[in-house]
Amino acid sequence: MDEKKLYSPKIMKEILDRHGFEFSKSLGQNFLIDGNIINKIVDAAGIDDSTGVVEIGPGFGTLTQGLCNKAKKVVAIEIDKSLKPVHFETLNYDNLKIIYDDFMKVDVNKLIEEEFKGLKVKLVANLPYYITTPIIMKVLEDKLNFSSITVMVQKEVAHRLSAKPGNKDYGAISLAVEYRANARVSLIVPSTVFMPRPKVDSAVITIDILDEPRVIVKDEKALFTVIRAAFGQRRKTIHNSLSSNLNIDKDKIREAIENANLDPGIRAEMLTIYDFAKLAEEIYK
């Protein structure tokens, strides 16, 4: 088979039918059928022959194929074991290893150490919408040893992940990304390039992970407790939102806000990661 045609809907349907494969709605399976989009994802991730790649959810393998053609080594983690016979037919690459497991349960840093000695390792995936946020938060919170994350996600989620202060999409998850990384939306992707076709458009977001957090704090847990509380009622002022969502005296919260040189009447969506760091330090000092 001409590998350039693997993303062809006709070839995909023939192979899937031959193996009796049925798409799983619960796993959010939507396979890419556009070679141009696949190439753009690989380019956005900056993959070359010095790169190791962990791919989550290879599915039919169209993106996996593009990664294998550029990367030094690819380890793909697939939760759906029914795809094994499909992969046996579609993904015969010497630089590919497929692990049939749940990414959320894998010891990823151990895997990286064992499989990618001496390589810069990147995470690349066409993520099911339902698992996007847990996966990205796992990478950031568990400090997994990736230099970057390039993932296809629901368009609205991509905007939330990359939003800046003052934007309506800006929220707690924007700050979680901002704390550890630089994020940019690389590409908007229409629903027409998937089989089956999802109901919404997607976007490719690239998250370059910083060597150190953007701001140094004494207590990360306290920082994100304050951030989550601040966005718990985002239409309220920062003073009212924190007073409602933290079990702390209102006067102490007002004093902390003022000591951080912030206006008690401002809303959470206007505050930077640096503002929240100062605020958390004042609240929990």
Cα end-to-end separation: 65 Å
pLDDT averaged over residues? 94
- What is the structural class? alpha/beta
Number of strands: 9
Helix content: 25-40%
Low-confidence stretches: none
Molecular shape: elongated
**Total helical elements:** 12
Strand content: 15-25%
For the largest beta-sheet, the strand count, sense and barrel status come to:
7 strands, mixed
Q: What Rg do the Cα atoms give?
A: 21 Å
Strand order of the largest sheet: 4-3-2-5-6-9-7
Order of secondary-structure elements: HEHEHEHEHEHEHHEEEHHHH
Question: Can you put this structure into words, describing what you see?
Answer:
The chain is of the alpha/beta class. The chain is built from twelve helices and nine strands. The strands form two sheets. It has a seven-stranded mixed beta sheet with strand order 4-3-2-5-6-9-7, sandwiched between helices. The protein has a two-stranded antiparallel ribbon with strand order 1-8. Strand 2 (51-56), helix 3 and strand 3 form a beta-alpha-beta unit. Helix 10 (238-245) crosses helix 11 (250-259). It is elongated and about 70 Å long.
Q: Characteristics of this structure?
A:
285 residues; seven-stranded mixed sheet; two-stranded antiparallel sheet; 12 helices; 39% helix; elongated
Topology:
Elements: H1 9-18, E1 31-32, H2 35-45, E2 51-56, H3 62-68, E3 73-78, H4 84-90, E4 96-100, H5 108-115, E5 120-126, H6 132-141, E6 148-154, H7 155-162, H8 172-180, E7 181-189, E8 194-195, E9 202-209, H9 220-230, H10 238-245, H11 250-259, H12 273-283
Parallel strand pairs: 2-3, 2-5, 3-4, 5-6
Antiparallel strand pairs: 1-8, 6-9, 7-9
